[in-house]
């Protein structure tokens, strides 16, 4: 009977080395493909939310909802025996609740590339409560909230409605928007390393990456419903009128 020849140690090491080499070659490509797929899903979510927004506008005299500045959908964070959904005007509510009846489901309010949405650690929540903030990946431009859009904004294709962002509601051109406001010299001052918020509550978390989740770009929905990506920058290339709609404003 013919005896089977076993692999020598050297041959096994060569095989292992070849496998390791192939993995080293393939893994970056696989990660890139996975990241691109997540970007495609995110764009689909944003387009769907843009449609939901316009359906809402058609039903409410072309006026957007006034948006609370939080990111919760219900009172589950309280550990309540009975979970109660928040209404769109609840102070803890996420702005998306107002438009959710027109959306496919709550899942489209989450970007698949999200690592950590703002879970308001300064209010006593924080990363341990992240699961309650899972479906609030898109930050609403506060300048479009509670507005008759056709009266307030002349060029809908130049005004941002919402975009990939760590924060649920973007309050000011001087703190949490991608432009440079008149009172600052760089954008996103609230979320940059060294700010009091990041230094106190977000050490070890890449807060800027959470704003530009897709190959250093933020998927963005504009008021006319189209979607595009805004590349990461310190703000010089992003005009303030993309947020406040005031194209003729004078920068100081």
TrEMBL record:
<keyword id="KW-0488">Methylation</keyword>
<dbReference type="InterPro" id="IPR045584">
    <property type="entry name" value="Pilin-like"/>
</dbReference>
<keyword id="KW-0472">Membrane</keyword>
<dbReference type="GO" id="GO:0015627">
    <property type="term" value="C:type II protein secretion system complex"/>
</dbReference>
<dbReference type="GO" id="GO:0015628">
    <property type="term" value="P:protein secretion by the type II secretion system"/>
</dbReference>
<keyword id="KW-1133">Transmembrane helix</keyword>
<feature type="transmembrane region" description="Helical">
    <location>
        <begin position="6"/>
        <end position="27"/>
    </location>
</feature>
<protein>
    <submittedName>
        <fullName>Prepilin-type N-terminal cleavage/methylation domain-containing protein</fullName>
    </submittedName>
</protein>
<dbReference type="InterPro" id="IPR000983">
    <property type="entry name" value="Bac_GSPG_pilin"/>
</dbReference>
<keyword id="KW-0812">Transmembrane</keyword>
<dbReference type="InterPro" id="IPR012902">
    <property type="entry name" value="N_methyl_site"/>
</dbReference>
<dbReference type="Pfam" id="PF07963">
    <property type="entry name" value="N_methyl"/>
</dbReference>
């Amino acid at each position: 009977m013919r005896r089977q020849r076993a692999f020598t140690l050297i041959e096994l090491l060569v095989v292992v080395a070849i496998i390791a080499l192939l993995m080293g070659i393939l893994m970056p490509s696989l990660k890139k493909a996975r990241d691109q797929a997540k970007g495609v899903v995110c764009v689909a979510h944003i387009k769907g939310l843009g449609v939901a927004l316009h359906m809402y506008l058609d039903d409410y005299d072309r006026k957007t909802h006034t948006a609370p500045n939080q990111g919760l959908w219900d009172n589950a964070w309280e550990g309540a025996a009975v979970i109660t959904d928040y209404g769109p005007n609840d102070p803890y509510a996420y702005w998306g609740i107002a438009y959710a009846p027109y959306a496919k489901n709550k899942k489209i309010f989450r970007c698949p590339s999200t690592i950590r949405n703002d879970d308001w650690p300064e209010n006593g929540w924080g990363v341990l409560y992240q699961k309650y903030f899972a479906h609030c990946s898109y930050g609403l431009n506060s300048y479009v909230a509670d507005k008759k859009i056709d009266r307030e904004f002349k060029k809908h294709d130049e005004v941002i409605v919402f975009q990939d962002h760590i924060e649920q509601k973007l309050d000011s051109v001087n703190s949490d928007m991608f432009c440079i406001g008149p009172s600052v010299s760089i954008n996103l001052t609230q979320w940059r390393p060294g700010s009091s918020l990041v230094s106190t509550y977000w050490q070890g978390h890449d807060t800027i990456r959470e704003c530009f989740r897709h190959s250093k770009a933020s998927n963005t929905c504009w008021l006319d419903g189209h979607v595009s990506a805004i590349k990461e920058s310190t703000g010089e290339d992003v005009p303030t009128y993309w947020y406040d709609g005031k194209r003729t404003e004078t920068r100081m």
